[in-house]
Amino acid sequence: MDTIIIAVAALLLGAWWAMLLFRQHDTESDDGDRDADDGSESLDGFTAGAYHPTGAEYWSRTHDGPPDYEPPAPGVCPTCETENDPFYTYCRNCTGRLTPA
User: Where are the domains of the chain?
Assistant: First the structure.
Protein backbone atom coordinates (compact mmCIF):
# COMPACT_ATOMS: atom_id res chain seq x y z
CA MET A 1 0.00 0.00 0.00
CA ASP A 2 2.86 2.36 0.84
CA THR A 3 4.42 1.69 -2.55
CA ILE A 4 1.23 2.72 -4.33
CA ILE A 5 1.01 5.97 -2.35
CA ILE A 6 4.64 6.79 -3.09
CA ALA A 7 4.17 5.99 -6.79
CA VAL A 8 1.08 8.21 -7.05
CA ALA A 9 2.84 11.05 -5.22
CA ALA A 10 5.87 10.75 -7.52
CA LEU A 11 3.61 10.72 -10.57
CA LEU A 12 1.76 13.85 -9.44
CA LEU A 13 5.02 15.60 -8.56
CA GLY A 14 6.46 14.70 -11.96
CA ALA A 15 3.39 16.02 -13.76
CA TRP A 16 3.55 19.26 -11.78
CA TRP A 17 7.25 19.65 -12.55
CA ALA A 18 6.67 19.03 -16.27
CA MET A 19 3.88 21.61 -16.31
CA LEU A 20 6.19 24.19 -14.70
CA LEU A 21 8.89 23.51 -17.28
CA PHE A 22 6.39 23.82 -20.12
CA ARG A 23 5.05 27.13 -18.76
CA GLN A 24 8.58 28.49 -18.32
CA HIS A 25 9.48 27.49 -21.87
CA ASP A 26 6.25 29.07 -23.12
CA THR A 27 7.04 32.32 -21.28
CA GLU A 28 10.60 32.44 -22.61
CA SER A 29 9.40 31.97 -26.18
CA ASP A 30 6.91 34.85 -25.78
CA ASP A 31 9.60 37.33 -24.66
CA GLY A 32 10.57 38.13 -28.24
CA ASP A 33 7.05 39.26 -29.10
CA ARG A 34 7.02 42.09 -26.54
CA ASP A 35 9.06 44.37 -28.81
CA ALA A 36 6.44 44.05 -31.54
CA ASP A 37 3.64 45.32 -29.29
CA ASP A 38 0.79 47.07 -31.10
CA GLY A 39 0.25 49.60 -28.28
CA SER A 40 -3.14 48.25 -27.32
CA GLU A 41 -4.37 48.99 -23.82
CA SER A 42 -4.48 46.33 -21.16
CA LEU A 43 -7.49 45.68 -18.94
CA ASP A 44 -6.43 48.30 -16.36
CA GLY A 45 -6.44 51.08 -18.99
CA PHE A 46 -2.68 51.48 -19.32
CA THR A 47 -0.74 50.79 -22.51
CA ALA A 48 1.08 47.48 -22.44
CA GLY A 49 4.81 47.85 -21.85
CA ALA A 50 4.46 51.45 -20.64
CA TYR A 51 4.95 52.89 -17.17
CA HIS A 52 2.55 51.38 -14.66
CA PRO A 53 2.02 53.42 -11.48
CA THR A 54 1.97 51.61 -8.18
CA GLY A 55 0.34 52.12 -4.81
CA ALA A 56 -1.38 55.41 -4.08
CA GLU A 57 -0.69 56.81 -7.56
CA TYR A 58 -2.45 53.85 -9.20
CA TRP A 59 -5.34 54.12 -6.74
CA SER A 60 -5.81 57.84 -7.40
CA ARG A 61 -5.77 57.34 -11.18
CA THR A 62 -8.31 54.56 -11.16
CA HIS A 63 -10.63 55.47 -8.27
CA ASP A 64 -10.84 59.25 -8.15
CA GLY A 65 -13.72 60.88 -9.94
CA PRO A 66 -13.51 63.84 -12.29
CA PRO A 67 -12.08 67.09 -10.81
CA ASP A 68 -15.54 68.43 -9.92
CA TYR A 69 -16.54 65.12 -8.30
CA GLU A 70 -17.93 65.34 -4.77
CA PRO A 71 -18.42 62.10 -2.88
CA PRO A 72 -22.01 61.45 -1.81
CA ALA A 73 -23.15 62.28 1.69
CA PRO A 74 -22.91 59.53 4.30
CA GLY A 75 -25.77 57.11 3.81
CA VAL A 76 -26.38 58.06 0.16
CA CYS A 77 -25.55 55.29 -2.30
CA PRO A 78 -23.02 56.43 -4.96
CA THR A 79 -24.52 53.99 -7.47
CA CYS A 80 -28.28 54.48 -7.26
CA GLU A 81 -28.38 57.62 -5.02
CA THR A 82 -30.81 56.02 -2.56
CA GLU A 83 -30.80 57.57 0.91
CA ASN A 84 -30.04 55.01 3.61
CA ASP A 85 -29.45 55.12 7.32
CA PRO A 86 -26.01 56.78 7.72
CA PHE A 87 -24.74 53.83 9.75
CA TYR A 88 -25.50 51.24 7.04
CA THR A 89 -22.50 49.72 5.27
CA TYR A 90 -24.39 48.62 2.14
CA CYS A 91 -27.29 50.19 0.23
CA ARG A 92 -30.68 48.65 0.97
CA ASN A 93 -31.73 49.08 -2.67
CA CYS A 94 -28.81 47.90 -4.82
CA THR A 95 -26.39 46.51 -2.18
CA GLY A 96 -23.68 48.97 -3.26
CA ARG A 97 -21.07 49.93 -0.67
CA LEU A 98 -21.77 53.23 1.10
CA THR A 99 -19.27 55.85 2.23
CA PRO A 100 -18.54 55.62 5.95
CA ALA A 101 -20.38 58.01 8.25
Answer: 70-101
pLDDT tens by residue, 78-100: 788 888 777 777 887 887 777 66
**What gap in Å lies between CA 42 and CA 8, rounded to an integer?**
41
Q: Which amino acid is at 88?
A: Y
Q: What is the pTM of this model?
A: 0.29
pLDDT tens profile 21-73: 887 766 655 555 554 455 555 555 555 555 555 555 555 555 555 666 666 67
Q: How far, CA to CA in Å, does 29 sit from each of 23, 32, 34? A: 10, 7, 10
Phi, psi of 76 (to 5 degrees): -100, 125
Q: How far apart are CA 75 and CA 89, in angstroms?
A: 8
Q: 60 near 43, Cβ under 8 Å?
A: no
